[in-house]
Amino acid sequence: MNRLLICLIMMFTPELLAQSKKELNSNRIKCLNEILINYEDGKEEVYYESIQKFNKNGDVVEESLFYKTGEVYRNIKSVYNKNNEKTEEETCDGKGLLLERRTYVYDTRGRKNGEVQFDRQNQPVRKSVYTYNKQGLKSEMKVYDGGGQLIQMKKYIYEH
After folding, report:
1. Predicted pLDDT of residue 22
2. Rounded CA gap, 91 and 97, in Å?
3. What does 5-64 look like in DSSP terms, one character per residue?
4. 76 or 22, which is more confident?
5. CB 72 within 8 Å of CB 65
6. Secondary structure element (H or E) that encloses residue 151, with its range
7. For residue 73, pLDDT beyond 70
8. Of all helices (H) and strands (E), which one includes residue 121?
9. At residue 25, what are phi and psi to the nearest 5 degrees?
10. Which residues lie below 8 Å from residue 2, measured CB to CB, with a gap of 6+?
11. How many Å apart are CA 112 and CA 127, to the nearest integer?
């Protein structure tokens, strides 16, 4: 079978349409190719939309996004810790030049405590800090600019 046919079969297999990490892992899926097929005036146009590569836990470790021409316009690589939490993400353009990098920090309960976004020169441009209430629900998010100045706050209010 050629690669295109295998990818089309993967795309339309019901189990993969709403796959979870557990399903990806149990089916030993290492890569998912998303192919878009457009029909216009009786003609079929087929092209790759994205390719996702997974680690053994079903986490996306690399994703490539494509133009209709087949050229890559974004490549996103992610790193996970031993607790299966994303700790870093790098986004590059189609030529491999770094556009941004993000780092993530978690507490001992696996809740995301913070996120820092860096620019091409690896300088921090934005930092988000999360706090949680006694029930473990997110209660607040504060966003700071690269200089550490508070620029936004969001509060989460839950109704029972």
Report:
1. 77
2. 8
3. HHHHHHHH-HHHHT--HHHHHHTT--EEEEEEEEEETTEEEEEEEEEEEE-TTS-EEEEE
4. 76
5. yes
6. strand 150-155
7. yes
8. none
9. -65, -50
10. none
11. 13
* Residues 6+ positions from 78 with CB-CB distance below 8 Å: 59, 60, 61, 62, 86, 88, 89
Neighbours of 127 (CB within 10 A): 19
- Which pLDDT band, with edges at 50, 70 and 90, does 18 fall under? low
Among residues 26, 31, 23, 24, which one has the least CA distance to residue 3?
31
Neighbours of 43 (CB within 10 A): 7
**Tokens (6 digits) for 73:** 């316009």
Amino acid 24 reads L
Task: Average the pLDDT over each of 14-18, 94-98, 124-128, 152-156 and give the range with the smallest value.
Answer: 14-18
> Mean pLDDT score of the chain, rounded to an integer?
88
% of the chain residues with pLDDT over 70? 89
Provide φ and ψ at 148, rounded to 5°. 90, 10
CB atoms within 10 A of CB 133: 11
